[in-house]
Amino acid sequence: MKYLYVLILSVSIYFNPNITFPQGSWSYQFSGTTNMLEDVYFISATTGWAVGWHGTVLRTTNGGSNWINNSITGDEYLGKVRFINAETGWMTTSGGSTKFWKTTNSGINWFSTDVNGVRPHDVQFVDSNNGFICGDIYPAFMFGKTTNGGLNWTTQTLPVEYVYGRMSFVNSSYGWIIASDMMSSRLLKTTDGGDSWTVSDIDYPSMIPCFKSIMAGWAAGERGSLIKSNDGGSSWIEQSPVFFYSPTFWGIHFSSLNTGWCVGSYGTIMRTVNGGSIWNEWGRLSLNDLLSVFFISENEGWVAGAGGTILHYNSQLTQPLYLDLTVLPEGMCSSTSGQTVKDTVRVYVRRNSAPFEIVESAIGYFTSRGSCIFQLNNCQYNVPYYLEVEHRNTLETWSALPVIFSANSLNYNFTGGESMAYGGNLAPLAFWYCLYSGDVNKDGIIDISDMAKIDNDSRSHATGYRSTDINGDLFVDGSDFLIADWNAVNFVSVMKP
Hints:
By secondary structure, this protein is mainly beta. Helices cover 5% and strands 38% of the residues. The chain is elongated and about 85 Å long.
């Protein structure tokens, strides 16, 4: 797909009452790349592919636990990927090229083909024989069809001249294409496999269709637009939720007539379980733009997007887990009472083996005793995780060993001794152990660069909530400098697995 950055100048200020944390679990999968991933597709619960910029092709045979890099040479911008079986598949090129890539060995090797000079935008197969593409031979908008598994293609010019198209076929006869520019869209419908088309207008720009039957279909696009048709595209009903912001939807997928997912900008993930009458927003797992969503069943699916992001959904986790965490920032803690200035803290839950991907993060507000409870929606029972704690001016600190949720809650107290932190990386203070204070610039070491920031704010008599206010008294002065200086002299730095 073409990935267009759009500046949104008007943002809704209404609260969305449907924002919840639905049942099920999303988790990160390590893709091994930071390139933009434009599409993800699976033919089974174990076998799938993800493709994107700079020739990136990823393949998995274990549901995404590991992704194998089968990237092609050259700086190709790959857009869509579809397979008809475990061996044979196709990819489109999103950068305006006529190359149409094919593999016959599961995506290990690819060779480029050409479909009568068409620059393909989208590709879909409804079975092992019948497949379709839409694209352009500028300025003509084109449609291509195969009835023998891609051995031969026939093409035709469509009765519109728009810059980009996406399509959705439910069988070898019924299909829809939405051809869009930045201002509006046109819907093309066929009931005879593309031999003839009807054309109608849609008053929404850059829409992506998803039909599940010859009557029921949805489309999603810019400014948070979500619409549904119950009559095969003849009319549309708006289902758009109300947002604090105006996301652009880049991907939509329905696994049944009731259950569907939509993904888009700013890490937006939406879900419906009643055909779109209500859309619930999932808690943000990433701030990266999400471009593609695909579900192999109602219980399992994947999302791909910017920065090499791949997310995996598993419906087995049906309730949140709770982490009761206790931490004391060294600079804010009293050595006589063990009480601390109240402040915010973030916890990252990470996998227990390299590269220690983030499974989930949450922000909390600890009490004067340093305790804080986090609700975790993406963690699972009996799975080992490392805990990483971040505070505005303390050193990043990891749990000594992976922890396991054997019940729906877990207590972890960093203040109980050096043995609670990886490498014993805690500051002793009377009867307690604290997070080392002074890492103002968050570079993982307390040194002269942190002291310089504190000194600058101290000289300007800075006040208020600042990272340089080490002791939390809302004034930056020499007392803050002394805490950081002591840790800098002792070369205190992050310790982690």
